[in-house]
Amino acid sequence: MSPSRSRNQTELDEEDYGPSRTQQRREALAVLTLAAQLMELPPSRLAKLELPEDVRREIDVTRRITAHIARKRQLAFLAKVMRRYDDADFASVRGELGENREKQRQETAAMHRLEAMRDRLISEDETALSELITEHPQIDRQHVRSLIRQARTERDANKPPRAYREIFQLLKDLAASDSKPDA
What we know:
The protein is mainly alpha-helical. The chain has 2 domains: 65 residues, Diphtheria Toxin Repressor, domain 2; 71 residues, Diphtheria Toxin Repressor, domain 2. It is built from 9 helices and no strands. Helix 2 crosses helix 5 and helix 8 packs antiparallel against helix 9.
């Protein structure tokens, strides 16, 4: 024991008081964030999650509140109810939400790839079209070429992008047919 420290100070340091106040605050904010994520889920997805009954009841109550401050207060109360349970009780829920975020990122990336392909089809002459035909030999080439011409005309004439949207839908349908397993 160092001479500058009293005996009582050393005994206090040696005892374990549990998590610090900062750590408790971080954990409480994490539960509040989880509660907010649960509130944003559609009821059909929420029904599939394994949640305690009182948490489900509080989510229903919170959803019915429309006033901003009252809703915020009720959300804090929902988080308080959720903190009564162990982290293990919500581990499956956190896992489910994490998996869905990854799935949403993948879907968003796929949509961005389709948009980039559509833009290449409209802006480039033949390279993007030849790549598309190589990947999908069953595609109606004449129809695609006419859609590309229409999209270019619409863009140049500053008209509503009807063909532009049709090209995206066509690419989306092709991607969906590629992802389906052959039956």
